[in-house]
Amino acid sequence: xxxxxxxxxxxxxxxxxxxxxxxxxxxxxxxxxxxxxxxxxxxxxxxxxxxxxxxxxxxxxxxxxxxxxxxxxxxxxxxxxxxxxxxxxxxxxxxxxxxxxxxxxxxxxxxxxxxxxxxxxxxxxxxxxxxxxxxxxxxxxxxxxxxxxxxxxxxxxxxxxxxxxxxxxxxxxxxxxxxxxxxxxxxxxxxxxxxxxxxxx
Length: 201
Prior knowledge:
By secondary structure, this protein is of the alpha/beta class. Helix content is 37%, strand content 15%. It has helices at 3-13, 39-52, 62-76, 95-101, 116-123, 154-157, 175-184, 188-192; strands spanning 81-84, 105-107, 128-131, 135-137, 142-146, 161-164, 171-172, 196-200. Strand 4 and strand 5 form a beta hairpin. The N and C termini lie far apart (38 Å). The mean pLDDT is 91.
């Protein structure tokens, strides 16, 4: 049993806090208004919020569009080395080959072995982190990212530039909508991840 499993088992066995707390409401009052919840409306809102937070959002069609956009962004940053999730977690076919064809080195950092220090040193010069997401919140321009094998946290935080590939159906109107979907699935993502990050800007 790993140290993580031991800690989690202790937490699960402990008495639940606040036993007299009232039950959770079925619905929450929305904190932020989202008037247009169509896919196009959510995309427009997400783009506007992302730009307000000094980010950029590029809407493209199909895998070929993603490959062109990502490669163009990597060229614009004169990228020679990226750190990335396993490409099976990034929704764009052929993207790994397109990046390698540019002569760009790709590292999938593994931080849970005895070579952690060597790994950190080897990826220190990476200019870009490349990942997918669990979901994105249109109302606040927020990315929701959980960790799992092949999709670690390092590519989202270490490099000075973070490029995310996501699909339109990953957009949710508000954070409350994502939390609701998680409850309906038994909190599967939250329970199975070491951490869940909310990234804005």
